[in-house]
Design brief:
This protein is of the alpha/beta class and 187 residues long. It has seven helices and five strands. The longest helix has 21 residues.
Length: 187
């Protein structure tokens, strides 16, 4: 018999709570500083991590920042003073590494969000932000999450991004009203 939704939900929330319990208070500081300093920002990720970072880009836009999602036709040239953020939870993303090389070659700073800081992708980055959650790199252990595959990382990442937005909102002097004013009216 399958566990109830309430039981599974409680387990998943407990796991998310544990991720944020062990996350250092300064875990986002370098990323936040880099975002504030960046002239232009581009983000990239694949799969469900890609969805999370697209949501992050949307909120950065709501804060008034010049942000773009790689893959859109309107992504500008990145160079000196710009920031390229890649999500690579498992520590390795071939396409992300290729794009990081291009951005870095032209002078952009690179950042990686990951759970596996010793992976090849984070090792290439100028700055690394670690979210200590299960990904597909470690989902087959005896202490595996109740959530499948990399879901714990992906959901923790989404929450982490929203917390970064709250910090940025304060540091940039934005409010819920100024953010809301930038929300699209074409829905």
């Amino acid at each position: 018999m399958s566990a109830s939704l309430a039981t599974l939900g409680a387990s998943a929330l407990d796991e998310l709570h544990q991720v944020f319990r062990v996350l250092p208070d300064d875990a986002a500081d370098a990323l936040i500083d880099a975002i504030i300093k960046a002239k232009k920002i581009a983000v990239y990720g694949c799969g469900r991590e890609g969805l999370a970072i697209k949501g992050f880009a949307m909120r950065l836009f709501h804060l008034g920042l010049d942000v773009h999602v790689l893959g859109d036709m309107t992504v500008p040239h990145l160079g000196q003073g710009d920031l390229f953020i890649v999500t690579a939870g498992t520590g390795h993303l071939n396409s992300g590494e290729a794009f990081m090389r291009v951005a870095a070659h032209d002078g952009a700073k690179t950042a990686v969000i990951t759970a596996q800081p010793n992976g090849s992708t984070p090792l290439m980055a100028d700055l690394v932000t670690i979210i200590p959650a299960q990904t597909m790199a470690n989902d087959q252990t005896t202490s595996a999450s109740v959530l499948p595959m990399g879901s714990l990382f992906e959901i923790a990442q989404t929450i982490f991004f929203e917390l970064v937005i709250l910090n940025l909102r304060d540091r940039l002097g934005e409010t819920a009203d100024t953010m809301r004013a930038r929300h699209t009216n074409l829905e």
